[in-house]
Amino acid sequence: MKQFGLYDADRVDQLAHPENFDQLNGDSPAMVVFTDFKVHEPMVIDATTSALEAENMMKRSHVRLKLVVDEYGSFLGVVALEDLSDSEMIKKVADGYNREELQVNDMMRKRQDLKVFDFRELELMTVSDVLDVLRQYGHQHCLVVERSHHQIRGVISASDIARKLKMDVSIQRPPKFAELYLSSLHR
Fold first, then answer.
1. Domain 24-182, CATH number (from 3.10.580.10, 3.40.50.10190, 3.40.50.2300, 3.30.2350.10)
2. Where is the CBS domain (predicted)?
């Protein structure tokens, strides 16, 4: 039988962090910034959860995006913290909703309205490629799907990329037609 022992920790005062070992840059494979649901449990929320409760829950846990599911666990869409903001809730109230009765399914981005990365293409991309696409579409987050299996494989987050690159990554939401029209009137 082999003999193993423990050692004194008196000379250890530093913590190892993944970013100390990763030499991440724009040419790194995109897979290093991909949150894979085969490794990490997806963050989900029930569609019937109160929108106010969801906002508080997401703020407390520092989560900016959750996948919305129905009572059977089927994917319906996503809800971002920005979708639950006061301004978004005010828009719904103006449309006749009662603020206290708003649910996540009233505020979410529906599955059929989402744009996603294909997992097979992501395997060929670099971090710079991913950032270019996120900027082009104005997305802070983007789901990654395995189309052949009809399943969501994971998610890409611009803020995760920024943190790993140790730099500011600016993603601007493209203006809506109404915003462009209004700005042209003021010229």
1. 3.10.580.10
2. 38-96, 108-171
Q: In this predicted model, what pLDDT tens digit does every residue of 128-183 receive, in sequence order?
A: 999 999 999 989 899 999 999 999 999 999 988 888 888 777 766 655 544 444 44
Q: pLDDT by residue (tens digit) across 80-133?
A: 999 999 999 999 999 999 999 999 999 999 999 999 999 999 999 999 999 999
Extents of the domains making up the chain: 24-182
Please check whether residue 163 is in contact with residue 63, taking contact to mean a CB–CB distance below 8 angstroms.
Answer: no
User: What residue type is 77 in one-letter code?
Assistant: G
Return the exposure string of 88-104: e unless at least 16 CB atoms fall within 10 Å of the residue's CB, then b.
bbeebeeeebeeeebbb
Torsion on CA atoms 111, 164, 159, 134, rounded to nearest 10: -60
- In angstroms, what CA-CA distances link 95 with 64, 89, 98, 110, 168? 25, 10, 9, 18, 36
CA atoms of 98 and 9, how far apart (whole Å):
58
How do strand 65-69 and strand 44-46 relate by DSSP bridges?
parallel
Q: Are 45 and 104 in contact (CB under 8 A)?
A: yes
